[in-house]
Amino acid sequence: MMEETSTIDIKSINEKIEKESAFVDLLTLEMNKVIVGQKHMVERLLIGLLGRGHILLEGVPGLAKTLAINTLAQAVDGAFSRIQFTPDLLPADVTGTLIYNMKENDFSIKKGPIFANFVLADEINRAPAKVQSALLEAMQEKQVTIGDETFTLDKPFLVMATQNPVEQEGTYPLPEAQVDRFMLKTVIDYPKLDEEQLIIRANLKGAFDKVNPVVSLKQILTAQEAVRDVYMDEKIEKYILDIIFATRYPEKYRLTDLKPLISFGASPRGSINLATAAKCYAFIKRRGYVIPEDVRAVVYDVLRHRIGITYEAEAENVTSEDIINKIVNEIEVP
Fold it and tell me: Which pTM does this prediction carry?
């Protein structure tokens, strides 16, 4: 009898999720009007949005990173702001500041660009630590304090930070503990040849389709709640934990050769975000339950910035992705 109820439950969850996730196709279609290719990046943006997380995008300039989040903001009918990070930026330039009003002989608050639904932090590694921490605090606490007043940020709130892996001059690398605040770190590559041909044509014509708002902010907030209802079996939870624990204690998982290559493993935030991202991926695929493939689909984006590699690994040209690859191939799939 017990077996039967759980089957019925999954069936109703599945139907609910299928209905709730109907807008995903609409949203993707709308974004594809402007963004050619980059399916992986668009999908990751949606995972970040649905999982109430933030995204760190790494890629050379000109890969439509700014365009992607701007397009998403237009398609969702949300407020968008862009902060270009530079070495002379101050925390107040991000969060806002108190301005003295001579007429009223009092201070008034001027809110900064962080007060938006979608915030693009362009070239986050160009700004000094104080500015980075002001942004990261807002990301974590979802609130900002200006003077002695605290403001809660609007929902949904998604920060997409970009960093350029090419130029390292005049950059301030993000500390490991702060990078951990990002739900996903997505590395994007050049478009394929035929995709780039379409990009050239669209740009030369100068005729980009207008992006229309196809989803309301309310629908997104409802979807964020619905993602929590996606069913995750205990076996999948165990699978996620095995992957995370293998980054910390590789020797317990027959991966002794990885021990000297890892300086630190993924934090508990890693397991929470891996579970959340897997649920979001299932939701995007319009499924009410998580399967091992969902975990494998998001594991690189969730863990690549959460595993510290040693000098030995660097000397052997081993990246955190190679380590994840070995772990995923070794851990038994439920």
Answer: 0.86
